[in-house]
Amino acid sequence: MSVQHLIISMVCVFICLSCQERDQVYFDASFDGARLGAVKKMGVDRYEAQVRPAFEPVNPSPWYAFTVQSEKLHTIQLKLKYGKYQHRYIPKISSDGNHWQPLDTSLVRVDTIGHSATLTLKVGPEKHFVAAQEIESAEDTFFWAKQKAKENPNSQLEIAGNTVKGNPNYVLIHEQEKPKDFIVLVARQHPPEIPGGTIGFKSFYETLLSETTTAKEFRKHFNIYAFPLLNPDGADSGNWRHNANGIDLNRDWVAFSQPETQTVRDFVDHKIAEGQKIRFALDFHTSHSGPYVLVLDSINEVKTKKIIPNWIKNIESTTSLKVEVRRRSQELPYCYNFFYNTYQAEAVTYEDGDEDNRDTIKERGRIYATQLMEVLLEKSAKNEFYE
Ligand SMILES: [Zn+2]
């Protein structure tokens, strides 16, 4: 090696060492809801991490959630490698874990051939959250539910059953008197589905519990039972879809092999045994092609009290919203089919879209809840449930 080459090599080593000193970046995926594979440093300010599901087979919904911080303020590139899956969710960022915004699309480079997405992230001494959707742990949802129960004298939060890991599974109860008609809400069987499963659901529920004339009248006639997070184990483990046994809960409503689905079935059976009548059920989800509602197939729809068609007609005639309806076979082992097949209660799967504007999701929840209450009250006033 010539002296000139030796000097160049020494300078390079010096630059690299200085860069490494400047470049102390820390990733943390050890909290509830987090998920990120091992992070590898690929060069100055360049990192790679694997994003992998806990269980397979699984539908393509790669969930990632972590915090990142560094000693000094600078910019890094993080490549998320999805293996055989494709990038799906626009990254959401937050400095406090409560207020979120989508990462600007110019800072996300998706490679559909290489199955990866490279994020450009500003990092610094302040910890920043990065996640596929807003992070909502079981503690977050159940804290919200506790608040809701405190706000209303006829509400309470009860442990309805346990999960696979032995964690409590809660139901939010609103009972003004018994026996009477009731409706059931089930939320977030699928952990990443925060838009509909958490944001849409909460807005819907809060509208049912609001102080509008319609809501107050509704609660005089209907009790409300809501499971605000049916899959807390999956949510806290950062699972893409499953519970802690690797089961997709929304395919378990015929087999009832899991404690989470058994909890809902047993609870509803108990309410019916008390002499109450179930009149409607909703199951809250999120899809890349939402918003829409899954409704009963047309063969079964003719046998019903037509709550769903009237509800949709009301939404479309009183607002500018158009309701996209999709029909599914009543044979599928989905939650909403269980409510119809077992109790002949009309039911829907309520889907928001992955990247729908969050205020629009909340507004949709308010409108759909209000119009559902109107239709159920009308049926109740005409005694149509008892024909
Ligand atoms: Zn879902």
UniProtKB/TrEMBL annotation:
Swiss-Prot/TrEMBL GO biological process terms: proteolysis
Domain of life of the native organism: Bacteria
InterPro entries recorded: Cytosolic_carboxypeptidase, Peptidase_M14
Cofactor(s) demanded: Zn(2+)
GO function terms (MF aspect): metallocarboxypeptidase activity; zinc ion binding
Keywords per UniProt: Carboxypeptidase, Hydrolase, Protease
Coiled coil: none
Pfam families: Peptidase_M14
Peptidase M14 domain: residues covered: 134-387
PANTHER family (alphabetical): CYTOSOLIC CARBOXYPEPTIDASE (PTHR12756), CYTOSOLIC CARBOXYPEPTIDASE 1 (PTHR12756:SF11)
Family: Belongs to the peptidase M14 family.
The protein's name: Zinc carboxypeptidase
Species per Swiss-Prot/TrEMBL record: Flagellimonas flava
